[in-house]
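pinned: reference chain
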Amino acid sequence: MRSLVIEDEPQIGAYISRLLGQLHGIVDLVGSIAEASQALENFKYDLAIVDRMLPDGDALQVVTALSQSPERPAIIMLTSKDAKEDVVEGLNGGADDYLGKPFEPQELIARVRAVLRRPRLLAPSVLSLGNVELHLGSNEVVVADRKILLRRREALILGALLMRRDRVITRAALIEEIYGFDDEIESNTLEAQVSRLRKKLAAFGGDVEIRSMRGIGYILRLATPR
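pinned: its structure tokens
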């Protein structure tokens, strides 16, 4: 899952981003309509948390545009502009939910889960190949009936590979999927994380292999019996 937080208060934006990060996925944070437009041109999002009053205007225009997109994300408006008429305007403008500030973190997470359960966004809760099962949202993987907890990036990598089992995913596509656009990564960061994941799966008896395709990317498939 990739989420976009549109919030001009840095501390609030960072807090919301941390909450969403616990739901297994990448979170991008922007502080204006202009930055949001740029992010939306470059990435596809599953969820958008939108503050309404931003330095460069009312973000309801962003919500309305998003709601009309063929690949629209789930949209929650999170704003102090929460009079009854504002809520009605926001929902009529395309938001799936509307929550006023200040807010309770548990309520925000519950509302996020509710909008993501809607049919257009349903996704499997478990991805598997061979004796490896990844439980989405918990970073927990079961390998040969033994449970282990992966690091967040390792779980994201495994999830991306399982979604494309037996198909090559390019290095660039994998980086785009598991890192936020403002994450700073070194040239060998992805390779090191893939290597750790590969070793963990092997150590617990996983019957899958992550093969490196030199100059291209990676492919996950059942290991060839020896």
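why pinned: The mean pLDDT is 87. The longest helix spans residues 189-203.
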